[in-house]
Structure formats: C-alpha cells, structure tokens
Write a structure and sequence with these properties.
99 residues, 3 helices, 81% helix
Length: 99
C-alpha cells in the first residue's frame, strides 16, 4: 500500500508545483500587458499562448465596465490559490489515509 501512498503524494506535489509555475506565468503575462512588449518576442508569445485560453473563458463572464481593467488574471490566480489550498492538501490527506 505504501506504493500507492507515495504515488498520491508525488501527484499532489506535482500538481502543487505545476500550479505554482502557472501562477508565475500568469503574473508574467500581467506584467507584460502593462508595458509595450514586442508581440513577436518568443517569450511574450509563449506567455500569451499559455494563458489566453483560460483568461478568455473568464473574460466571457466578467463585465468589462469596470473602468477598462482586466481582472481575469486576478480571478485565475485566486482559482489557483484555491486549488493549492484545497485540492493538494486533500490529495495528501488521502495519501496519508492509505498508508
């Protein structure tokens, strides 16, 4: 049973790590939106392509009458923080219960 326990713990840590990386990608995207970044720069293109699918889905539900501010990165970061504080500990507790 310890193999399943270790596997679940590894999955929880991997999810936590990937969520943290994605949160920093979203922060990078927000920062480049404040400056006049070259849209043909490979880093800028990566940040846009990695974040736009989720951000566009959030934008569909947000009213844009909030002074022209785009709050979709903030909402996505809050969703990631929720997953990190709920999903990851839940997976770790399930793994502990198996061991």
């Amino acid at each position: 049973m310890f193999v399943v326990n270790n596997f679940m713990m590894a999955i929880a840590k991997l999810i936590d790590f990937l969520l943290t990386i994605y949160m920093w990608i979203i922060i990078g995207r927000a920062v480049i939106s404040w400056v006049n970044a070259d849209p043909y720069n490979p880093i800028v293109r990566f940040l846009v392509e990695a974040t736009e699918p989720l951000l566009s889905r959030i934008r569909r539900f947000l009213p844009m009458s909030m002074g022209g501010m785009d709050f979709s990165p903030v909402i996505l970061i809050m969703a990631i923080m929720f997953l990190q504080s709920f999903l990851v500990p839940t997976l770790k507790q399930i793994a502990m219960g198996m061991g």
